[in-house]
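User: Hi! I have a protein structure encoded as tokens and I'd like to know what sequence might fold into it. I'm fairly new to this, so please keep things simple.
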């Protein structure tokens, strides 16, 4: 009965986390749909100018490029802070635990939605803090939810990537706002309702999430939530047992019971697989694995951010200002974002299947860690290949082609962020997950700032035609292929080191 109740609670945690990520975490990336509504509400409309000259070349069509630039600046700042603030948020998460981190996130998210609700065209400047706080609060939701994958053992990668896909799909919430706005609902009504959902976030924080962290692997007697008995404190830096099915606490009688179950290790096993100390945060952050992972994430993230941030003016350029076509393509883009939750698990399934094929029952920690690392190589390469295809389609200045671009973009974005979180979780000690995840997101945010000068280049120098910028980004994206090659070489190096250590141990025993 206890096992059934525990499973039911874990499933409730999983499904409510999925809803939270899908409905709230990444709504800021549905910016193109919200911009359409904000333009209808005349936000920054004073920046539009009309050519009133009497020349034959005068069209009388308002020039709203300055308005588009202002909206692009808002998204650039929000997307920058979405990533950059992940670093201090990661330290808060690692040091203070889940409950404190989520309470901060809920507060920021509520303030953000209320700012948008009570903003008007006259106070359009409120969008700057509102979108930034919305982005920061959303990333805190996804950060605290990704650890839920630890509750499900060998399906861990699938759940991590599924949650990241739900994060991507949440951008469709702004499509819903756009549709409801066209049906007569006001921005104030809709965003006040979103603010009221904070009550649900609070209930989930106290009853379905831990106060600290969810360890991996999960001990058999692990409990969480304020309705349960106080559980023991588990260290995320503890040595990971060889079996993922569950472990006993390493203290007192539990150590004896575990040794009785597993039996005595042979001399060769002890010598070949000593328990290595957990690597320091500094050594992880300064490693080549981390450096090339940063490059891998940064170049593809810039490509996606620029596409999302300039989608509205790009559609206006290709449709020659036809508002009906812009609305149709904006809806199509937002609808494809909703499918992110369906695309993301493919990446996790790919990694989990490959990992299960490499891990051995009763294998050492080093061999299992190596199997984890091997499992991400194909995923990293596939994600980079998808981004190249996406960049090619985005460079084709034909409006109907953008339907295909939207589909490829959402698949690639799901693979990108799911693969990013899974790689950090597998390649480095779990004790540093929050800090390393925050660091890679923060550093990649510095690269994402380039989207604003790219937009200015398209507007001021290329007269609204992004073709040459798209070609430059396509070449830039090719750098992402270095990362999977580097990870593959690192796997080979570790494998050779393990074989050499085993040979030396065997020689000593024979001698």
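Assistant: Happy to help. Inverse folding works backwards from shape to sequence: for each of the 511 positions I chose a residue that suits the local structure. Here it is:
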């Amino acid at each position: 009965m206890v096992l059934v109740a525990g499973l039911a609670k874990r499933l409730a945690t999983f499904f409510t986390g999925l809803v939270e990520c899908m409905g709230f975490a990444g709504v800021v990336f549905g910016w193109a749909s919200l911009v359409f509504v904000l333009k209808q509400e005349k936000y920054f409309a004073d920046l539009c100018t009309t050519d009133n000259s009497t020349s034959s070349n005068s069209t009388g069509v308002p020039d709203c490029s300055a308005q588009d630039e202002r909206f692009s600046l808002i998204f650039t700042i929000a997307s920058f802070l979405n990533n950059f603030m992940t670093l201090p948020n990661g330290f808060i998460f690692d040091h203070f635990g889940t409950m404190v981190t989520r309470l901060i996130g809920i507060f920021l998210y509520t303030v953000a939605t209320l700012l948008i609700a009570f903003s008007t065209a006259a106070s359009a400047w409120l969008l700057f803090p509102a979108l930034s706080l919305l982005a920061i609060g959303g990333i805190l939701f996804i950060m605290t939810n990704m650890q839920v994958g630890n509750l499900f053992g060998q399906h861990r990668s699938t759940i991590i990537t599924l949650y990241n896909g739900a994060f991507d799909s949440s951008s469709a919430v702004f499509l819903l706002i756009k549709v409801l706005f066209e049906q007569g609902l006001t921005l104030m009504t809709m965003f006040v309702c979103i603010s009221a959902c904070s009550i649900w976030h609070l209930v989930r924080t106290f009853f379905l999430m831990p106060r600290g962290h969810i360890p991996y692997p999960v001990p058999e007697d692990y409990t969480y939530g304020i309705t349960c008995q106080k559980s023991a404190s588990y260290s995320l830096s503890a040595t990971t047992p060889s079996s993922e099915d569950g472990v006993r606490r390493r203290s007192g009688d539990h150590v004896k019971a575990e040794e009785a179950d597993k039996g005595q290790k042979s001399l060769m096993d002890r010598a070949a697989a000593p328990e290595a100390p957990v690597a320091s945060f500094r050594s992880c952050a300064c490693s080549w694995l981390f450096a090339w992972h940063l490059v891998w994430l940064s170049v593809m993230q810039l490509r996606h951010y620029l596409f999302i941030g300039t989608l509205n003016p790009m559609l206006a350029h290709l449709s020659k200002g036809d508002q009906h076509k812009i609305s149709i393509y904006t809806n199509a883009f937002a609808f494809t974002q909703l499918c992110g939750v369906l695309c993301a698990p493919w990446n996790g399934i790919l990694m989990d299947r490959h990992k299960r094929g490499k891990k051995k029952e009763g294998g050492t920690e080093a061999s299992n860690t190596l199997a984890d690392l091997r499992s991400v190589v194909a995923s990293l390469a596939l994600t980079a290949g998808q981004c190249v295809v996406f960049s090619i389609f985005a460079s084709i200045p034909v409006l109907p082609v953008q339907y295909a671009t939207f589909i490829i973009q959402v698949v690639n974005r799901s693979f990108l962020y799911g693969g990013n979180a899974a790689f950090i979780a597998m390649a480095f000690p779990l004790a540093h997950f929050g800090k390393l995840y925050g660091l890679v997101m923060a550093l990649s945010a510095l690269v994402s700032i380039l989207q604003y000068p790219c937009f200015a280049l398209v507007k001021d120098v290329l007269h609204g035609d992004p073709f040459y910028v798209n070609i430059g980004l396509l070449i830039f994206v090719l750098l992402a292929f270095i990362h999977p090659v580097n990870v593959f070489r690192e796997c080979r190096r570790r494998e050779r080191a393990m074989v050499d250590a085993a040979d030396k141990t065997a020689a000593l025993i024979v001698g």
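A useful reference point when you look it over: Residues 53-57, 230-275 have pLDDT under 50 and may be disordered. Feel free to ask if any position seems puzzling.
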